[in-house]
Write a structure and sequence with these properties.
Elements: H1 2-7, H2 13-29, H3 31-40, H4 49-60, E1 70-76, E2 79-88, H5 94-105, E3 112-116, E4 124-125, E5 143-149
Parallel strand pairs: 1-5
Antiparallel strand pairs: 1-2, 3-4, 3-5
């Protein structure tokens, strides 16, 4: 992939490598670690590159629904009236879904909880069992999902019921 980008001559090899390394960090370690690396590399990247990368990441949004997968309506606690549509395979684990959604939305997974949002209320905290599949957690087609973003105070908007 890097060779293809370098061959086009649009970007120098060092920038292509940096971009790919940051992309891998984002996928493997999450937003917070990627942000730390962006700060550490600020002197190496051309002026404006980091800001451009952040804008591109924010504009990306969720991937479009794929026919044959579970259609999901994704809500964010900071924007509860505007769900976004995406889809996921029923055999995907809760952890994998959370990681994908956070990556695509530019959220730090350590500051997000994922809920079954049945009836437009926090019905079940899905990540109590992060290794279970969506099917095992009773997530069905057209299921609403809430990504609860941690408050600045460190608390949460929704309380778990025991």
């Amino acid at each position: 992939e890097a060779a293809k980008l370098e061959a086009r001559g649009a970007l120098p090899p060092s920038i292509v490598s940096l971009s790919l390394a940051l992309k891998r960090t984002m996928e493997d370690c999450g937003e917070a670690e990627c942000e730390k690396q962006c700060q550490a590399l600020a002197g190496v990247a051309p002026e404006g590159w980091l800001q451009c990368r952040r804008m591109k990441r924010r504009a990306a949004g969720l991937r479009k629904p794929v026919p044959g997968e579970l259609l999901l309506y994704i809500y964010r606690s900071t924007q509860p009236e505007t769900p976004q549509e995406t889809s996921e395979c029923k055999s995907t684990t809760v952890h994998s879904l959370k990681c994908r959604l956070c990556t695509e939305l530019g959220l730090d997974p350590s500051r997000v909880r994922i809920w079954d949002f049945f009836g437009k209320r926090p019905y079940a905290l899905l990540e109590r069992n992060p290794d279970k599949t969506l099917l095992a957690r009773r997530v069905f087609d057209q299921n609403p999902i809430m990504l609860e973003e941690q408050l600045d105070s460190g608390g949460w908007s929704y309380q778990e019921e025991d």
